[in-house]
Amino acid sequence: MAAPDALYRLEAVRHQYGDRLVLQIDELEIKRGETLCVIGPSGSGKSTLLRLLQFLERPTGGRIVYDGFPAGDGVSLETRRQVTCVFQRPVVLDRSVRANLTYGLRVRRVHHDRREVDRLLEALGLDRLAATPARTLSGGEIQRVAFGRALAFNPKALLLDEPTANLDPRNVRLVEDLIRDRQAQGTTIVLATHQIFQARRLANRTALLLDGQIVEVAPTAILLDAPRDPRTRAFLNGDMIY
What we know:
By secondary structure, the protein is an alpha/beta fold. It is 34% helix and 27% strand. The radius of gyration is 18 Å and the shape is globular.
């Protein structure tokens, strides 16, 4: 049974693509309002985990409990709209930057405050590009557009897959400042990243995912400075353990 402060609970979750087992998590809770950072090498299952948490796929085995209810085939549209994900290679609409931030809100018939959209554009350094077709932008700019679009939905759970991978240090800071802003508002955030220092800056807890399995999960300072599992120590030291 999920703890009262858990937004997600994963129970004996298994996920396969064909004969290949890509995720095997016996138990994991994600607390309401926390930022959980998931670290691990490429191919360890981080993106697959985010897809399951967004209900884009149903696990092959086990179950995911969201907000106290099992998330099966019958996940309601209302529930799906509470969760937004920004993937590493986001897709933008063939519209202006501003329209990318507002289109989804109009489709959902959600009233949006133009000033709030203006604030997001400015905070992401996109205000001068507001009328620019989004598909003409650089990879890093598109990443920021996708991030702003996710924030415009004001989700209960924000899932981020390497959100600053294509950004220079200045824009990394812009994005991280907005993540902190959402943390202060109580948004539950799951952040998949290769960047150990980003986990230290942003996450309440950090989990190491290797070969689709959670090796260790702990408060970030403890996991990064005094990990219990030798595989975690090896990963943090840059040793080839995978």
